[in-house]
Amino acid sequence: MRARVAALLATLIVGVAAPVPTAPAVASTPVPLVDSYFDWLVASYDGVRNGLRRDIEHVYGNQLVVAGKTCTTASPCTIGGPRQSTAACTALQFISVYLDQRAAYEQRSLSSVETGLIDEFASAVLAHRLTKDPAAPKIFDDAVASTPDGQIRYFTSFGNAACGEALLAAHQATGASGYLDAATGIGEFLLRMQDPRAHYLTYGVHPFVDGLGQPTTPPGGYVDQISSWSNLYSTISTWNLTAIAFMQRLETAVAPPDNRYGQSAAAARQFLSTGLQLGADWYTFDFDSPTTSQNRVVAQSSYSADCRDNRWHRTGSCTYTNGQIAGGTLGTDMIEYGLAGLYDHERQLNGASSAAAAVTTLYTTYTSLPGWHTASASDPLDCVDDTAAGAVAPYYPPGNQGATPSGDAWDYDPHLSFGGFFRLTPPNENAEAKYYDIVGFGILAELRKELVPTKFTAGYQRLQQADRQDALYALLDRSLAAMFLPARDTNDLDGDSDTTEYLCKGTRGTLPVAHNGLGILKAVGYAGTR
Q: Exposed, middle or buried by CB within 10 Å (0-12, 13-18, 19+), for 269?
C-alpha cells in the first residue's frame, strides 16, 4: 500500500500536468477509505508529512513565467503552499482517532510507533505557539498560530478550536497529560477571545461600544482573530460554533468546579446560533480603539468587517433592507461548520435525537437554497470544463439523489454535501464548489447520518464507488486533477509588476482528506469500514 501511496504522491507533486485519468477498474479487494486517507496523510514529500501541509498550488497563464519557466496548461508551475495549523490539527485529530479506533478494533494497545506518530504531529502543531513571557501576559498565550512563520502571526478562534479538538483526541489515544494541558491552554485563550476587554484597558480603551459610542459588554461569541501585535479584528463568525463543541468537550475532560468552559459554550451558542438563523456569515461589532499600530482593535475590511454596527451580515455587504440582511455572499463553509458545531454541542448535552431536532429546521432551510457551481463560466483561461456552468437545483429534490452525479466532474456533487458554494445575490464571479463538497461531507457526516440517513449513505457510496485502488481519486474531482480556480496574479509571481493578469490556481490539500476520514470514523466507525 505504501508503494501505491508513494506513486500517487509523486503524481501530485510534480509540476508537469498529466491528462485527467479515467477511473480504473474496481479492485477485487477494496481498500477502506480511512486506510487510504491515513496512508496519504502520513506519507512524506521532501521531508514533510502530507498531513502537515495545507496545499500545493499550480499556477499558469498565457504569458505567466515563474522562476524563468513559462507556465502553461500542459506544464503548470508548481508552488508549495504554506503550512497551516488548522489543516495540520485536523490531520492530527484524524490520525489520533483512527489509530485509537483501529487498536480498539484489534483489541490491543497502541504501539510505540503509533504513539510516536501522534507525538510527531502534535509536536508540529504545538510548534506554532509563541514563547510566553510570564511578565507580560498576552491574549494569545497558549494559542496556536495559523502559520509557523512571518513577522506577524495570526491566531484564530476557529483554528484553535480545531487544534483543541485534535489535542483532546491525542490525549485520549495516548493518555499523555501534556496534550490535555495544551488543550486547556487553548480553552483559556478562547475565554479571553470571548471577552478581551481586560487586555486593552491599559490603553484606556473599551473594545466594544454601543450605538451611542458608549462602552458595552461583548455579545458572547468568540472574536475571530488576533495578531501577534495584539491587534484584535472586529468580526465574530458563525463557524466559531465549532468552538462551543470543543469547549463543552473540554469541560467534560477537565471538569473545573466553576464550569467555566461549559458556561462559555452556552453563552457563545446563544449568540452565534442567531447568525445561523438569520442566514449570516459575520457579526461586526463597533469598537473604540487608539490609533497606535499595535495593541488595538481593527476592522477587517476585506470581509466588510468595517460595518462596525453590532449587526449580522453576509460577506461583502453591510446593507440591511426593510430590517433584513441584504446583499453579500453566504459561504458554504460557514454554514457547514456552524451546523456541525451546533449539532455536536447539543448532542454532548442531550444526545443525538435532541441534536437532530436542534438543527433540522436550519438544515432544511440551507439545503433548499440554490447553489452556483463551476469556476469557469466567466474565466478567460477556462480553468475547468464549463459545459455545465450555471445555477443548480436545490438539494432536496429526489432528482439530485440518484445514482448518477449531476452535471459533470467539475460541478458540485449533491450526493457528497449540500449546495456547492451559495450565492444569495446574482453572482458576479463563480466559485469551484468541489472543494466544499469534499470538506463538507466530513464536516456534516454525523449530522446527515442522523437527519437524512439515505442521503448520507448515497454520499458515502459515491466516495466508495470511485477508484478502489486509491480512494483519493474520489476526493480530487474523481480524478488526480487539482481543483482549479480563476484568479489574478496579485502577488506578482512572475515579477513583471502586473498584478491584474489572470492565472489559474489549483488546490490539493490536507483538509479534504482529514475531514472525510474524521467524518467516516465518527459516523461509521473504524469497525464499520472493515
A: buried
Task: From residue 103, give the alpha-carbon distance in Å to each of 114, 121, 525.
Answer: 10, 18, 12
Residue 437 or 81, more confident: 437
pLDDT recorded at residue 53: 77
Grid coordinates in use for 217? 459588554
- CB proximity list for 125: less than 8 A, separation 6 or greater: 85, 88, 89, 92, 144, 163, 166, 167
How many other C-beta atoms can be found within 10 angstroms of the C-beta atom of residue 204? 8
**Region 498-525 average pLDDT:** 82
Dihedral sign computed on CA atoms, order 314, 318, 319, 320: positive
SS (H, E, C) 484-527: EEEEECCCCCCCCCCCCCEEEEEEEEHHHHHHHHHHHHHHCCCH
Burial class (CB in 10 A: 0-12, 13-18, 19+), 197: middle
Instruction: Give counts: helices (H), strands (E), the chain.
Output: 15, 20
CA–CA distance, 244 with 344 (Å, rounded to integer): 9
Per-residue pLDDT averaged across 196-211, rounded?
86
Per-residue pLDDT, averaged over 83-112, amounts to 95
**Is the pLDDT assigned to residue 203 strictly greater than 80?**
no
Residues for the chain: how many in total? 530
Could you tell me which residue, 428 or 29, shows the higher pLDDT?
29
Number of Cβ within a 10 Å radius of residue 402 = 10
Say what the pTM is.
0.85
Cβ pair 367, 47 in contact under 8 A = no
